[in-house]
Every structure is written in structure tokens, then in C-alpha cells.
Amino acid sequence: MNTAVKLCGHTLKNPIMTASGTFGFGREYDEFYDIGRLGGIVGKGLTLAPREGNDGVRIAETPSGILNCVGLQNPGVEYFIENELPFMKSKDTVVVANVAGSTVSDYERIVERLSDTDVDMIELNISCPNVKSGGMAFGVLPSGVEEVTRAVRGKCRKPLIVKLSPNVANIADNAKAAELGGADALSLINTITGMAVDLKSRKPLLGNVTGGLSGPCVKPVALRMVRQAYKAVSVPIIGLGGIESAEDVLEFMLCGATAVQVGTANIHDPYAALRIAEDLTNAMKKYKITDVNELIGALIEG
Ligand SMILES: Cc1cc2nc3c(=O)[nH]c(=O)nc-3n(C[C@H](O)[C@H](O)[C@H](O)COP(=O)(O)O)c2cc1C
């Protein structure tokens, strides 16, 4: 049985990657299992300078998911290159750096810096507030998606994955805009904006008032968006949102994903990504699949 997939010139031994922000830089998870057994690992979102993240409550449980407003806490790109990247690269897996910024020039500078390292791919988180557009995220309007992608493409000497926000009017338009701007692959979905209320205090539960919803509750939205994006573009798609099992992986691949990322599942079960990767061949056997590649986009509609 074949579980290997090709993504932007790299071969992933299986289509399972980890999702940014749910796996640190892999060290803590490597104490549970060899993270080199995963197809790829994606680190926490990096900014130019270190960030402490948001004050107050940062995570709230919801039915079948969580809300988070961590606020991009990270040690900064230079610390990452010096202290975390060598560890990640010592593992037999594809290493992806996730990048965040609040201006186009932030993104350009981080990506330029990362292009000088041996990181395998760069993933652009465009759900960040754009200071020049009054705080509206880069990823909301297709024009913003195209602009930031094109600018970064000009500086990027690595395969460039653009991670799409689901908080948009039409995901297909945003997918096309990223492709037009020069993305080599797309990943989706990032979290869905939500909030939680504390009845006792009559206050928002999260310190930041709103947060990003993730986990199994977002899976149906993610599957729908992966399908719509797949039909709109020809670059490969990495699907994510609520993946908890090998069956979920097969569903995302049928909808059009070449690879997937496991996020929130890592938080409640540190073995989740490995368990899913190891269970993949059992699920393939059950559904009479000999090569995962045969599934990509093969959903039968109508
Ligand atoms: C605690 C937490 C932190 C996150 N931090 C980032 C981040 O730094 N950059 C990013 O692109 N996505 C970040 N995400 C979004 C996830 O990578 C993923 O897109 C989302 O959670 C949906 O997948 P899931 O339902 O499997 O978690 C974060 C998610 C969570 C739960």
C-alpha cells in the first residue's frame, strides 16, 4: 500500500502533517514519539520580534472544539533559526515554517530570512490583522490575499504555502487570488472567529473577547471549503480542520487535499498525529484503497 504523497517537490512518507500553533516546534511531542514518523511538521507562527501573546484566558472549550486567542506567542524568527530549526531538521520529516505579520514588509522580511535557511517550505498565515487596513486581516478580501502573496513570492526562495482564512465571503475567490499571486500550494482552513460568554460575570470568557474556533466542530466547514478551493485552483491543497482519525484524512483527500494537518487533536491527545498516521493503512484496507493518491479530489458528486 502506498501512503506517500508529493508536495511542492518534496515526498511526504504519509500525508499527515501537524498544524501550526498546536505542536510548538515539535520538541514536546518528540518526547512521546519519534516525530520523524510524520509526513511533515509545521512550527508555531513566527514574527520578526518575539511576542508574549494575549493577556487573560486564552483557551475555552466548546462542544466538540476549542476557542483560542493565544495571540501569536512565539520566540521570533532569529531564535527559531538558531534554536528550533536545527532540532526540527534533525528529524526525518518535511519541515515547514509558519509566518505571521502585520505589514506586507514584515512578511517579506521574515520570508527572506527563512529563505536563507534549510527549512523545506514556508507557510504564510494571512489571517493576521493588517495594520495598514485598519486591522482587517490580509486574508479577508481576494485583493489583499493576492497582494501579500505576490509581494512575498518575490522574496521567497522556498515552496510557498498560503494558508487561507475561512472568515471570508467566497473561499474559491480567495484561493484563486493566492494562486494568482504565486502560491505553490494552499492550506485551509485556519480557525473560524467565535466567542464564548461567562454568564456568572456577564463577561466574554476569553481575554481577547473573540477567538478562533477549531476541532471536530469545524470539520464540515473545512471539508466544504477544501472542495470549493480544489475546484477553483490547480495548485495542491493541504486540508485541515477538526481531523481526529484516519477516516477524516481520507475524507479530506477525496474532497481534494493532497496532504492534511492535524491541529487541535494534538492538544487533547499528544499521540493523535502518530495514531492517525499509523491507522491510515488500516483505513485504506477497509475502503479498498491501495494508493492514497487515487483519492485526491475523487469525490463523486451528483
Ligand atoms: C492554540 C492554537 C494556536 C494556533 N496558532 C496558529 C498559528 O500560529 N498560525 C497558524 O497559521 N494557525 C494557527 N492555529 C490554527 C491551526 O493551525 C488550524 O488551522 C486550526 O486550528 C484548524 O485545525 P484543527 O481543527 O485541526 O485544529 C492555531 C490553532 C490553535 C488551536
Which keywords apply here?
16 strands; globular; TIM Barrel; 302 residues; four-stranded antiparallel sheet; single chain; binds flavin mononucleotide; alpha/beta; eight-stranded parallel sheet
Blueprint (SSEs and pairs):
Layout: E1 5-7, E2 10-12, E3 16-18, H1 27-30, E4 40-42, E5 59-62, E6 65-68, H2 77-89, E7 94-99, H3 104-115, E8 121-125, H4 142-153, E9 160-163, H5 171-181, E10 185-188, E11 192-195, E12 197-198, E13 203-204, E14 210-214, H6 219-232, E15 237-240, H7 246-255, E16 257-262, H8 264-268, H9 272-286
Parallel strand pairs: 3-16, 4-7, 7-8, 8-9, 9-10, 10-15, 15-16
Antiparallel strand pairs: 1-2, 5-6, 6-14, 11-14, 12-13
Helix pairs in contact: 3-4, 4-5, 5-6, 7-9
Provide a descriptive summary of the structure in words.
This protein is of the alpha/beta class. It has a single domain, classed as Alpha-Beta Barrel (TIM Barrel), CATH 3.20.20.70. The protein contains nine helices and 16 strands. The strands form four sheets. Strands 3-16-15-10-9-8-7-4 form an eight-stranded parallel sheet. A four-stranded antiparallel sheet has the order 5-6-14-11, with no helix packed on it. A two-stranded antiparallel sheet has the order 1-2. Strand 8 (121-125), helix 4 and strand 9 (160-163) form a beta-alpha-beta unit. The protein starts with a strand and ends in a 16-residue tail after the last helix. The model has no long low-confidence stretch (mean pLDDT 97). The protein binds flavin mononucleotide (FMN).
